Amino acid sequence: MTALQSARHGLPGRPPESTGTVPFPTVDEITRHCLTDDEPETVHIEIHLPHRPDPDRLRAAVGEALRRHPRILIRQEPTRWWHRRYTWRLTGTPDTDPVSYPGGTLEEGRRRALAECPPLDASPPVRIEVIEHEGRWVLLVTINHTALDGPACLRVLATAAELYGGADNSPAPPPVRTAAGGGAGGNGNGSGEEDAGPPPGPATSPWTRPARIAADTTHPGAAGNGMFIADLPLPARPPRAPGRRSPYTVNDQLLVATWIMCARWNRMHEQPVRPVRITMPVDDRPRTAEMPIGNGTRLVEVTFGPEEREAHETLTASGAPDHRAIARMLRATSARTRALKSENRPQLGFGGDLLTKPVLPVGVRAAYVRGLRSAAGPWASTTLLSNIGRIPYPLDFGDAGRAQAVWFSAPGKSPRGLSVTTVSTGGRLQLALRWTHARLDDAAGHSLGALFARSLASTAYTPDEEDS
Asked: In the predicted model, what is the mean pLDDT of residues 62-76?
């Protein structure tokens, strides 16, 4: 008897909650204000399985998973400009069947995921396409980011996997690295193996305009997003000494690799030197079945201090990487991100909470937010790095098999025009770069992705770090 059958026979399971309405939280409202037709606010997830899931069983499992996580069963209530709130309607049951087997290629499905956002006026605002690709089957999931984020949707998909296959898909504890281990699974944004180190040095002033990825496109007015996807080895980390933990995490290596990629790209395009700033989502939610569904991450901005200015020439030059300079930057970045993660602040800062106070009508607030976003665009961070980290769920779909790889991508909207999203599964790193076509064409985006791969490899631990 599968878990889906157990739920139908009244055995333990989460009962569906009653319908009702919920005001838009801060992140949902700010995102809703800034929606544009040329840059859809989508998050895309790919789960690669070895075998074809049965359509009827998959639809039944997904339907029951949605009912067990009723916060995903929402649609936006009709709104007028003078209303004080945008409001979600909890529907209790789906308005439409989110699962389809459309045929066609994975590339066509990816293009749909970047260009066609699930509507907000139908529950759930999620689309799940099952597509055959190179002998495997892919669950290609497209999420309207106004309603929820990738980790929340993955939690629902883990429940669907458990209901489909009957296997336990509870989150596994993080792996413990041995004293001789060089590189383990990703750490995610909310945890990591860190020692208490020295406090971070002073970073760049928030009033300094940050670097922007240099434009390289033959179609500067083009709409929409492009995407680069790669499967990479995890970079090695230092051996863990007895009684101590690693001085930096995979997340810190990803941050430094993103810095190197941006700085080298801009030097190749003869751009003036400006500080690189990286927006990083931090997710403190549990991964259990009680995980809150919605947009649950908070954004922090990672800046780089004196080590950035001192190492800029060395780390952006062509040739072999300076591993000692990279090691110093990794340790400084680790101290800085540790301090940022420990801060207690609202998801979008105190300014975000202030902008969504229901004092003025939503139409007035929307115009103000869009105007402020446009005016503050030059001071927006260089890029967004969303490190989902190690996938904690087996994602075991029974006779369809376990997930062999998982990819995420976050919107690459202007003014940044670029996002970097990473996931760790099976000791590998799945990378997705996503960009706006107004800044990069597809050829340039693929070159930038290859540069990231080289930059990440340059952060791998080498024994000569110990002397730095």
From this structure: 96
AA identity, residue 168: D
Among residues 165, 185, 202, the one where a domain terminates is: 165
d(CA 255, CA 154): 23
Q: How confident is the model at residue 314 (pLDDT cuts 50, 70, 90)?
A: confident
- CA pair distance 169, 160, nearest whole angstrom: 9
Question: Is 197 a residue whose pLDDT tops 70?
Answer: no
**Residue 192, both tokens:** 């990591």
**C-alpha to C-alpha distances, 205 to 208, 267, 304, 305, 311, nearest whole angstrom:** 5, 22, 10, 9, 18
**66: part of which helix (H) or strand (E)?**
helix 55-68
Place of tokens 């591993």: 323
Which amino acid, 265? W
Residues in the chain: 468
Measured in whole angstroms, how far is the alpha carbon of residue 290 from the centre of its chain? 20
In this structure, are 137 and 229 located in the same domain? no
Is residue 273 packed enough to be buried (19+ CB in 10 Å), middle (13-18) or exposed (0-12)?
Answer: middle
CA 54 from chain center: how many Å?
A: 29
Alpha-carbon distances of 298 from 77, 154, 255, 347, 379, rounded to whole Å:
25, 18, 17, 4, 19
Q: What is the mean pLDDT of residues 435-452?
A: 96
Assess whether 270 and 416 both reside in one domain: yes
- For the stretch 87-122, pLDDT in tens is 999 999 999 999 999 999 999 999 999 999 999 999
Number of independent structural domains in the chain: 2
179 pLDDT more than 70: no
CA separation (Å) from 412 to 167, 217, 254, 397, 425?
A: 36, 15, 18, 31, 23
Among the ranges given (170-174, 186-190, 252-256, 445-449), the one the predictor scored with the smallest mean pLDDT: 186-190
Asked whether residue 216 is domain-assigned, the answer is no
Least Cα distance to 267 among 203, 328, 319, 208 occurs for 319
Q: What is the pTM of this model?
A: 0.89
What pLDDT is attached to residue 196? 44
Q: Which of 165, 192, 209 delimits the end of a domain?
A: 165
C-beta separation of 167 from 394 below 8 A: yes
pLDDT score of 161: 97
Quick check: is 200 in a domain? no
**Nearby residues of 111 by Cβ (< 8 Å), 6 or more positions away:** none
Domain span at 80 = 18-165
Give dist(CA 130, CA 141) in Å, integer: 9
Give helix 55-68 / helix 150-165 axis angle, nearest 10°: 130
Position 260 pLDDT exceeds 50: yes
Query: Do 127 and 239 fall into the same domain?
Result: no
> Side chain identity at 78, as an amino acid letter?
P
Q: What is the CATH number of the domain that holds 451?
A: 3.30.559.10
DSSP category for residue 459: T
